[in-house]
Amino acid sequence: MSEPNNIREAVKEKYGEAASRVSSGGAASCGCSPSSACCGGDPITANLYQSEQTAGIPEQAVLASLGCGNPTALAQLKAGDIVLDLGSGGGIDVLLSARRVSPGGKAYGLDMTDEMLTLARENQNKAGVDNVEFLKGEIENIPLPGNTVDVVISNCVINLSADKDRVLAEAFRVLRPGGRFAVSDVVVRGDVPGEIRKNMELWVGCVAGALKDSEYLSKLTAAGFEQITIEPTRIYKVADARQFLSAQGIDADSIAAEVEGKFMSAFIRAKKPT
Questions:
Q1: Would you say residue 54 has pLDDT above 80?
Q2: In sequence order, which ranges of the chain are alpha helices (DSSP H)?
Q3: Where are the domains of the chain?
Q4: In which element (H, E) is residue 229 found?
Q5: What is the pLDDT of residues 99-135, one digit of tens each?
Q6: Which CATH fold would you assign to the domain 3-271?
Q7: What are the tens digits of pLDDT across the range 25-38?
Q8: Residue 50 and residue 226: Cα distance in Å, rounded?
Q9: Distance of CA 11 to the CA centre of its chain
Q10: What residues are paired with 269 via a beta bridge?
């Protein structure tokens, strides 16, 4: 099996397990198993949504969140917008977006994991939200026509793709001229030794693949985007990862100087030219 397929299958397994935990009454994060060999943990997934935001959102949608930010709080959504969430999971960002683009707008959620799609549709029914549609597919091959979406959002999913250039090209394709790219993602700032980076990425996202901020900028530019900004929203400390690193046989104190402040959640904005 090729590397992209290996990564895709690992992501599907991780998110399928997370959906099953939520459906069984648990939380999606920190459900470590022999196959997942990782644990996002509170520094990544906790306290992303304020209680007034999630009022009326089914609890299972909140529990299923495996994001690293809150793109719906930072994206400029307005009534009538068509929004697409790449890697929509249990549907929390889709449901929050649907509220903000009503009346007249619509929110699509795209996910490749059957268990998450089932959970998301259940959450949609519980919330009683009509202007939502969940699609099965891969973020590298978005099943929507070109020039049909006003805003593309995503919450800590693009870093999981083995072909980020394709993801960004697809996002550009489906956006209308003047459309906005507004995603939360894990970003690396500066240089980190390879083995240390791999372990930190495993802690942050379970599947290594976070881009350097300069790489994100160059890839978005190559895809055709302009007005690109990268805004840190949460900077991870080596102390946050101490338990995970210890389990991997790594002394957190010994690598602190090389890691501290270099891994972060960030809000990435860009625009498709008019």
A1: no
A2: 3-23, 42-45, 51-54, 59-63, 71-74, 92-101, 114-127, 164-174, 194-205, 213-223, 242-247, 252-259
A3: 3-271
A4: strand 226-236
A5: 999 999 999 999 998 888 998 999 999 999 999 999 9
A6: Rossmann fold (3.40.50)
A7: 655 554 443 333 34
A8: 31
A9: 12
A10: 182, 229
